[in-house]
Amino acid sequence: MPAIGNKDFAMQTIKVTSKSAMLLAFVAFCCTAMSSGVYFLTKDKIAQAMQEQQRALLLQVIPQDYFTNDLTQDCYVPKIDALQNVAIQKICTAKKDGKITAYAFESVAHDGYSGDIRILVGMKPDGEVLGVRITEHHETPGLGDKIETRISNWILSFDHQVISQEKAAEWAVKKDGGKFDQFAGATITPRAVVNQVKRAALAMLDNLPKEKE
């Protein structure tokens, strides 16, 4: 049999390479199409699940009997400096019979032992705190993580406490002369949470009327 020349060999190599490239492109197209299909089929369910999780979390800081509106849809990002300066990132408004009954606001304490601590606070317009929850943290397990409800009831000590400029000194851990307990061997974490709730709550009381005008 005659030997295959270099030109013929090169042509066959090009054909094989082209077929392989086309096959890979087809597989990639199919995978992309399947991924897109799965995304479009599930995106509404994912969005609904996320909204339900957010609603459940908001209900932990503002009881249902305080509002008739959809809290997850009545939220905004504050634009005034006084609220941004205390790291308030989002505010949700609770309304009943057209009247504002409470606010839920997200804030961040930057002075946690192991970094940022994200906090959700529910508060009435008169300064009564309805509830506080930690939504994210990196504090030490067995020490700082007592700010979570699954670990301890410490965070519930904020319930129905009233904040005001006159009572601001009380809003500290007992080691700093306040009324909130600290953790044995871990004062930094509760101090960061108490101080941030105080800073954010006072800023809300001072600036919400201006923010809503």
From TrEMBL:
> According to its record, how does it sit in the membrane?
Single-pass membrane protein
Q: Which EC number(s) does UniProt give? A: 7.-.-.-
Q: What class of enzyme is it?
A: translocase
**Which cofactors does this protein require?**
FMN
A GO biological process this protein is involved in?
Answer: electron transport chain
Q: Which Pfam families match?
A: FMN_bind
Q: Tell me which residues make up the FMN-binding domain.
A: 112-204
Superkingdom of origin organism: Bacteria
- Family matches, as InterPro entries: FMN-bd, Ion_transpt_RnfG/RsxG
**TM helices/strands, residue ranges:** 21-41
**Residue positions of the PTM FMN phosphoryl threonine?**
T187
Signal peptide stretch:
none
Q: Where in the cell is it found?
A: Cell inner membrane
**Gene Ontology MF annotations:** electron transfer activity; FMN binding
List the GO terms this entry assigns under cellular component, sorted alphabetically. plasma membrane
**Function description:** Part of a membrane-bound complex that couples electron transfer with translocation of ions across the membrane.
PANTHER family (UniProt xref): ION-TRANSLOCATING OXIDOREDUCTASE COMPLEX SUBUNIT G
Q: Which family does it belong to?
A: Belongs to the RnfG family.
Its assembly, as annotated, is: The complex is composed of six subunits: RnfA, RnfB, RnfC, RnfD, RnfE and RnfG.
**Protein name (Swiss-Prot/TrEMBL):** Ion-translocating oxidoreductase complex subunit G
* Species of the source: Aggregatibacter segnis ATCC 33393
**Gene from which the chain derives:** rnfG
